[in-house]
Amino acid sequence: MNATAAIGALAALLVGAVVASAQPGFQPPPDLFQTPSGNVQCLLGRGTLRCTVLEHDYPTPPAAAACRPPWNGQLALGRQGQAQLPCTAALVRDDDAFVLGYGARWLGPGITCESDESGLKCTNAAGHGFRASRSTLELF
């Protein structure tokens, strides 16, 4: 190998090392996030994902009709079990929260959420969850 080839090979190794070191490391998902519209905002705490649909066009679901004061768009999903519609939970709202862009996925412990133009879909390890948007609320 001549000197020019050796210098070229060394330069390629150094550039490769710099590029490799510039790769981001693993980062856990943020505990607080929102959809791009800001209408659905979620917070993970103590193994439960709590979300608020700030504005919705659908009627209050029957499971939340008895809430006093009236149901305010709250959803809760744990690692197991069905999604819940809490009556008394505080609103999740932080307009500076991380934005989960359309097509993006949030992976929390035992819960996965996917954002798309039709809303936010969150599912737990047992396959239960919800799809929520301004126009739709589906529990499954």
Helix content: 10-25%
Total discrete domains: 1
The backbone outline, from C-alpha atoms, is: globular
- State the major sheet: 5 strands, mixed
- Low-confidence segments, ≥5 residues, pLDDT <50? 6-21
Please report the number of helical segments: 1
Q: What structural class do helix, strand and pairing data support?
A: alpha+beta
Order of helices and strands: HEEEEEEEEEE
Strand content: 25-35%
Radius of gyration using CA atoms only: 22 Å
* N-to-C CA distance: 65 Å
Number of strands: 10
Average pLDDT, rounded to a whole number, is 87
Tell me the strand order in the biggest sheet.
Answer: 4-3-2-1-5
Structural topology:
Layout: H1 3-21, E1 32-34, E2 40-45, E3 48-53, E4 74-78, E5 98-99, E6 105-108, E7 111-116, E8 119-124, E9 129-132, E10 137-139
Parallel strand pairs: 1-5
Antiparallel strand pairs: 1-2, 2-3, 3-4, 6-7, 7-8, 8-9, 9-10
Sum this structure up briefly.
The protein has one helix at residues 3-21; strands spanning 32-34, 40-45, 48-53, 74-78, 98-99, 105-108, 111-116, 119-124, 129-132, 137-139.
Provide a descriptive summary of the structure in words.
- The protein is an alpha+beta fold and 140 residues long.
- The protein has one domain.
- It is 14% helix and 32% strand.
- Strands 4-3-2-1-5 form a five-stranded mixed β-sheet, with no helix packed on it. The chain has a five-stranded antiparallel β-sheet with strand order 6-7-8-9-10, with no helix packed on it.
- It is globular, with a radius of gyration of 22 Å.
- It starts with a helix and ends with a strand.
- The relative contact order is 0.20.
